[in-house]
Amino acid sequence: MSLDHSPVHHGPAHHSSVRPEDLVEHDRVQTPLYEDAALFEQEMEKIFAHSWVFVAHGSEVPEKGSFILSWVGQQPVIVVRDRKGDINVLVNRCRHRAATVCEVKKGKTSSFQCPYHGWGYGLDGSLRGVPYPEQYGKDFDKSALGMKALRVESYQNMIFATLDDGIEPLVDFLGPAKKWIDLFMKQGGGYPVKVLGEHQFTVPMNWKIQLENTTDAYHFPVVHKSFIQSLDKEAEATFNFFDKAGFVEDLGNGHSVAVMIPELIDLDENLDDPIPERFEELAQALRDEGFDEPRVRKIVRATGGAGFNLNLFPNVSLSLAFFRVLRPVGVKETAIRHVCLGMDGGPAAANRMRIRLQEHFQGPMGFGTPDDAEVWERVQRGTLGGKDLPILVNRGLVDEVPGVDGPRGHLSAETGMRASYQMWKRMMAQ
Amino acid sequence: MNGITTVDRDVDLQELAAFVWREADILDRCDYDAWLALWTEDGHYIVPIGKGENYEDQVNVCYDDAKMRKMRVERFQQGFSISSAPPADTVRTVSRFVLQGATGDEILLNCAEHVVENKFGRQRIYAANLTYTLVRTGSGLRIRNKVARLLNSDGELTAFSYLF
User: Fold this and answer.
1) How far apart are CA B85 and CA A338, in angstroms?
2) Beta-bridge partner residues of A343
3) CB within 8 Å: B83 and A335
4) Domain boundaries B13-150, CATH class
5) pTM of this prediction?
């Protein structure tokens, strides 16, 4: 099998006859993983067409008829809540001549109509009618020409879809990651978690450079030094992860968790801890609104988010206080959503603070994201040289121990990357 | 004028344009201390997402009061931010000035901005509608609010190491 169809080979690594699974060892992966276009095409088929892919949060389609555009790998889909309240994920393509039936990013509708020849579809994707059906004859079977619908399952209102009807149920795929999702959602502070908005940007990098990042705590004090310096002393101490008893653990199926702030694993615990100074103004605002002290403490604690990053293979992370969703655009282009979460029906002051915290770090002009984007692009640029050199993911093997659900390493260990790449290897070998 | 929006005949569009051009030059030269000095203490520098105008309760690309503006500039200047050391080079033009009105001490001005950035030899183009709330002070014009609404602000942007 050829992994490199380009006529020129730039180094000694000649990949023809190399199987994808041979490019991944436990402690290292090979450069083509970041830059081989043929390998990327195989990933879209072997991984993104056979995984549970995160498409939206339920709060983004709150009512019957609510929809939002999303992606499964490179395929555009519509996530829509139908008249029965069920979520459908439909490939955004008319069954007639392929035009997208919707280009509105988000909204509410009673049906989808193709703009080209007027084929009309229901919210469940069924073909309702076509103009001048007589010319299709009596055998025209509308029931066989609905929009392509994907298998859909949800966990904690996170909606996942798959193109594969044969893979395991979502809850089995998530496995031990489920309990971390449960913990993460406690930042609703007693309210349902709701999407408040998002930052979106693209980076000229392979999608796996992002996949590696969310449980890579090793980079944080280096890349995000300027963010940490912008915090007050107390918050700075909170973000000095390596002073604490954090860890990173392989949760199986490519998933991993990095616990950076152990005291914030369970937001319902330690409610008697002193309120950090930067949350004091919010606490007082909540007291002034009439919340009793236990509620104030619960909401304030939830406002800061969870103390861990959970990476779910292949395309979504639950990171401190937001979702990070990746979309492979091309072998060297990846789109990212940083989805801001808040408390549905919760106090406006708390949601405002969550939004301000999100803007502080995330997005195209955050104090964190531009530096992440710079180093990710630098990885992609660096792989132009020394194609025979491996990418090392061996950090922390020396003192890795068995954890609750899988190998557990020092917080700065590359245990999460090893988890992802072992799953990559398993799926690419199929 | 007592709160009634009218175009003040004494407002000179050329003077406003010259002020905005000076700011554009300051931003292209990354002279951020000079940029901070163009502001009053009470307003916001906002790069919003989408068409909404309830900036306080929506997620923006940035929503900076005086404190955040100062922190943002410190981040640019301290040399620890890899995306700012060095930042992308920019060349911008500002044009299509339209005076929206003058109320009390405030002057509302709309204009168009085109920014070309260069990083790694790769050039990207961004366009934004700018809305200024300017105030006349004893030491000249100052910015109270500035909203830079980028084209495709609710779509996929790229990381920025400069200001609009």
Assistant:
1) 24
2) A193
3) no
4) alpha beta
5) 0.94
